[in-house]
Write a structure and sequence with these properties.
alpha/beta; 4-stranded antiparallel sheet; 8 helices; about 30% helix
Length: about 260
């Protein structure tokens, strides 16, 4: 088995206070291994998007630990977390999040601009990423002029621009017709297979999830089932009550090395 690129321990996320508290995640412990394709599946409100935001370092847990390459992220300063996220992850979202008045090339190279890469290198790498997606001829077009499928291709090019270890795809085909959806799925899984990129897909689409090597089924803030291929097996994540989580949760008989010092 390959090494874990992402790990969580006793991951809890609570919104609100007092009687209005909502426990979005109730103590999740699991690993995502380097080069895996993993689907996080569940109905609306199951906690799948909250989990993705924590794994992708877009939000902080109420308690528990997220570790990247065995290193607890909670021990890093916010600026270091931002840099790590920009260098390590690529994102593909259902809503695209392209600036409609900027060119496709400017949208694709935004992560490099944030990282302080010079314009000449940004544009060179941006064109190379667009060529991978057969979109180089659209580089100077405004994003608003693209079709839905072209916008998602541009998003994938942007996700690839920093040579990420992990791509997070949040309902990547949710706004696309079935034919375009199949094309986008083929692109994502080809990148996963040929470049060894770890792919984490958040979806309620069972057909898309079935293409992943592993599926984590979520319900009410818990991972209630884990499936590998077509064979379901018990979930590795442990349930924690709304009011209390165990202090010394272990996995497979061993204590995680980053058990102490979870993000607050």
């Amino acid at each position: 088995m390959s090494t874990a690129v992402l790990e969580t321990e006793n991951l809890v996320k609570v919104y609100g206070r007092g009687p209005a508290q909502f426990h979005a995640l109730k103590g999740l412990t699991f690993e995502i291994h380097r080069g895996e394709s993993v689907a996080i599946v569940g109905k609306s409100g199951s906690g799948k998007s909250t989990l993705m935001h924590l794994l992708a370092l877009l939000d902080q847990p109420t308690s528990g630990v997220v570790a990247l390459g065995g290193r607890p992220v909670s021990r890093l300063k916010p600026k270091a977390v931002s840099s790590l996220r920009n260098d390590t992850f690529g994102f593909v979202f259902q809503q695209f999040f392209l600036n409609p008045n900027q060119t496709v090339l400017d949208n694709v190279t935004l992560p490099l601009k944030i990282a302080g890469v010079g314009k000449s290198e940004r544009n060179q790498r941006g064109i190379a990423a667009l060529e991978q997606l057969e979109m180089a001829d659209k580089a100077k077009n405004k994003a608003t002029d693209l079709s839905g499928g072209q916008k998602q291709r541009a998003c994938i090019a942007r996700a690839l621009i920093n040579n990420p270890d992990v791509i997070f795809a949040d309902e990547p085909t949710g706004n696309l017709d079935s034919a375009t959806s199949e094309t986008v799925e083929d692109i994502l899984f080809t990148l996963h297979q040929e470049q060894g990129i770890t792919l984490v897909v958040v979806t309620h689409d069972e057909d898309l999830a079935a293409k992943c090597q592993r599926r984590l089924m979520m319900q009410d803030g818990l991972i209630v089932e884990e499936q590998t291929g077509a064979t379901p097996r018990p979930a590795q994540a442990s349930a924690v009550s709304d009011r209390q989580q165990p202090e010394n949760q272990t996995r497979r008989g061993r204590r995680l090395p980053f058990r102490r010092g979870g993000a607050k």
